[in-house]
Amino acid sequence: MSTRMNRTTDRPTVPVELLLLSAGYCLHPEFVTLRGGSMRPAAYPAGFACIRHPSRGWILFDTGYSARFRELTASLPYSLYRRLTPVRLSEEATAVRQLAKLGIGAKDVGYVILSHFHADHIGGARDFPDARFLYPQAAYDAVRALGPVRATRAGFIAGLLPDAFADAATPIEREAQAADPGEGAPFQGCLDLFGDGSLISVPLPGHAAGQIGLLLSTANSRVLLCADASWSSRALRENRPPHPAAGLVMHDRAAYRDTFERLRRWQAADPKLIIVPSHCRDYFDLDGKEVRRL
Question: Average pLDDT, stretch 271-290?
């Protein structure tokens, strides 16, 4: 296994290969996610990352949507979720089908890391039954016991998860080691998931309880997959956080604002760090036909 020194921490890290794809997209008025944006609906890809680790193989960070989302939101109360966030998805655009086109079978995926438990991030989870699921404990604890109405408000649909998820999946806190994300990183509680510096979870609270991002290095770049801590690179770049109306679907509005500002500070302190929001058109293709590499 090859390693290299992280310029920020002076510690060895294992570089990985990173592919950015999307599995479907939803529609929202732009102003909700970008303060001062248009009233017209904008498309937001359900991005997921496919990571190739030199010894652990293929790893997913989130999964995007699947056809199960439509099936499970056909009736109340979950249909409210579907009406508020209209979803566009073809079968060819699901994560499992896209990976197959790249020669990556479902059984080749050894791990699926979930950033949080909103439906657009766990929608394809059942398509990878042989994978080991890793997740932040606080994120699952916040939704696992919710009834249908409260689950709908929290953006969680339990039926999207594999059977016996609670027994088979592993909280990242159980085995990961404490990690230093580097000078200038304004977040505490980061964890080295595999003990080799390749994938470091970064707590990004606010949008969803327990949400994490994933810090990694490729051969060319240092990347933070920031999940939904921002909905776009533009919002971070121009300091345009969501409209207050977006707070209706947030776990903690104050925590979101704090996380958003910390991301901006981190970007200023480390301009070479690439921050990738899960729904950003700068990095994710809408129709699932383009694979982007960093």
Answer: 92
